[in-house]
Specification:
Elements lengths: L4 H9 L17 E2 L5 E5 L4 H6 L6 H12 L8 E4 L13 H18 L3 E5 H8 L5 H4 L4 E3 L2 E6 L4 H4 L2 H10 L2 H14 L1
Parallel strand pairs: 2-3, 2-4, 4-6
Antiparallel strand pairs: 1-3, 5-6
The protein binds uracil (URA) and iron/sulfur cluster.
């Protein structure tokens, strides 16, 4: 059977591939437009996301909504998900083995949506696709890997504790429309 986002959601719901399944309230597979040109990838669900089963609905989500609005996009236009689909207890960082266990779900989502660009929100999402880079040095610089354009930027939550990062994030975010255009041209040529 052809793979689909609905099928992935169902598998995630029943997934017990890592210990995060034991502490989750709800799985948070991600949501948005299955034909989105942009996929946003965060770290993992927080408290609110775990309670409601949807990504980026707390304070970080508000920051993300403001950024989307700044480039005239709505949530329905994009697809938003995370490296791990279940909440790490007390919002600790996801462990490498948890990221590895969840890896395939994210890869399949990307393969179905085929976005022009993948925006990596923060260090954990960046490590998953662009290992070895440093967010403080590589944020705001698009990277082409195996025909896919990636765009690492700071995590919206980082701006809540470090206000000065908000401006950096806003500047990086505004580059997105232009990067999509470039990615489209790249994909036409190849
Ligand atoms: N932070 C994340 O990385 N993901 C969410 O879904 C919410 C907050
Ligand atoms: Fe499965 Fe991913 Fe949840 Fe771990 S985080 S239980 S791998 S869906």
């Amino acid at each position: 059977m052809k793979d689909s986002l609905v099928k992935i959601n169902e598998e995630v719901k029943n997934c017990q591939k890592c210990p995060l399944c034991e502490t989750r309230t709800n799985t948070v597979p991600g949501c948005g437009n299955s034909r989105a040109e942009i996929v946003f990838i965060g770290e993992g669900p927080g408290k609110n996301e775990d309670l409601q089963g949807r990504p980026f609905i707390g304070a970080a989500g508000k920051v993300l909504d403001g950024l989307l609005e700044s480039i005239n996009l709505k949530r329905e236009d994009v697809f938003i998900t995370n490296v791990v689909k279940c909440r790490p207890p007390l919002n600790r960082d996801p462990l490498p083995e948890e990221v590895a266990a969840c890896r395939d779900f994210l890869a399949r989502q990307v393969a179905i949506i085929k976005p022009q660009i993948i925006v990596l929100l923060g260090r954990h999402a960046m490590d998953r696709f662009l290992p070895g880079l440093k967010i403080s040095e590589d944020h705001g610089k698009p990277k082409l890997r195996d025909g896919q354009t990636y765009f690492p930027i700071y995590h919206p939550a980082a701006t809540i504790y470090q206000r000065r990062l908000l401006q950096t994030l806003e500047v990086d975010f505004k580059k997105i429309p232009k990067i999509i255009k470039l990615a489209k041209n790249e994909n036409k040529r190849s």
